[in-house]
């Protein structure tokens, strides 16, 4: 079993919908939780990160971490066709060193 | 400013050939990471440098894989005697000191035939 599990989708929603993306993990040492967006044939791009439990909001994006359940979420409000991409969650035990990634969820937002 | 660059963007190698993949990190970034991404999967950690010191190479799949960053800037990932299972996208990321924010390059797509 992988340390980080992510539903691969694919997920298809109409423009303007609220999107919920989720990951579960098994390693209780993880303290930093990141969300990356990856367009086809490009490198991942960091959207936001959270330290420990709690919520963080950045524009249309909200990240939530529940360490007691080992469950993290990314919500996208008012989704746009330009949000169509693969979303990767990633986790790290420290503010340096490697990140452990999920396998990504592919999202399509239809106009 | 310039982001992370990688070269070549695409590489086709015959099984058994050696390959060298280059990464130019963002100027001033202390940390440099190599990841391997297979089709339909997330990046898998290979190795990590802080300046010129290789602090973690636990993800290198075999002794055919070797990475270096001799002057603490440009890094090279070398794969000897390539095998078909080495076919993947190799991603390089750099990071300022003391942050989890990793900035990725576009990757090198390696195909071993």
Structural overview:
The complex is a heterodimer of chains A (111) and B (113). Chain A is mainly beta. Chain A has no helices and 11 strands. Chain A has strands spanning 4-6, 11-14, 19-25, 32-38, 45-51, 54-58, 61-66, 71-76, 85-92, 100-101, 105-110. In chain A, strands 2, 4, 5, 9, 10 and 11 form a 6-stranded mixed β-sheet that branches. Chain A is globular, with a radius of gyration of 13 Å. Chain B has 113 residues and is mainly beta. In chain B, 0% of the residues lie in helices and 49% in strands. Chain B is built from no helices and 11 strands. Chain B has strands spanning 5-7, 10-13, 19-24, 31-37, 44-50, 53-56, 65-68, 75-79, 88-95, 103-104, 108-112. In chain B, the strands form 2 sheets. In chain B, strands 2, 4, 5, 6, 9, 10 and 11 form a 7-stranded mixed β-sheet that branches. The relative contact order of chain B is 0.33. The model of chain B has no long low-confidence stretch (mean pLDDT 96). Chain A binds chain B through residues 4, 6, 8, 32, 34, 36, 41-46, 49, 88, 90, 92, 95-104, and chain B through 4, 31, 33, 35, 40-45, 48, 50, 55-56, 59, 91, 93, 95, 97-107, 109.
């Amino acid at each position: 079993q992988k340390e980080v599990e992510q539903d691969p989708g694919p997920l298809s929603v109409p423009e303007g919908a609220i999107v919920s993306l989720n990951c579960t993990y098994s390693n209780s040492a993880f303290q930093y939780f990141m969300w990356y967006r990856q367009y086809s044939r490009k490198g991942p791009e960091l959207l936001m990160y959270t330290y420990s439990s709690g919520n963080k909001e950045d524009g249309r994006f909200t990240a939530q971490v529940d360490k007691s359940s080992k469950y993290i979420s990314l919500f996208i409000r008012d989704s746009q066709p330009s949000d169509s991409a693969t979303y990767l969650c990633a986790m790290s035990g420290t503010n340096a060193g490697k990140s452990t990634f999920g396998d990504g969820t592919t999202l399509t937002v239809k106009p | 400013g310039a982001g992370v660059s990688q070269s070549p963007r695409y590489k086709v190698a015959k099984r058994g050939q050696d390959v060298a993949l280059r990464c130019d990190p963002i100027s001033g970034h202390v940390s440099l990471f190599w990841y391997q991404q297979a089709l339909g999967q997330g990046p898998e950690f290979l190795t990590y440098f802080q300046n010129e010191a290789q602090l973690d190479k636990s993800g290198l799949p075999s002794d055919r894989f070797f990475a270096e960053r001799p002057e603490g800037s440009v890094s090279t990932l070398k794969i000897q005697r390539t095998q078909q299972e080495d076919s993947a996208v190799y991603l390089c990321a750099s990071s300022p000191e003391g942050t989890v924010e990793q900035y990725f390059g576009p990757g090198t797509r390696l195909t071993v035939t």
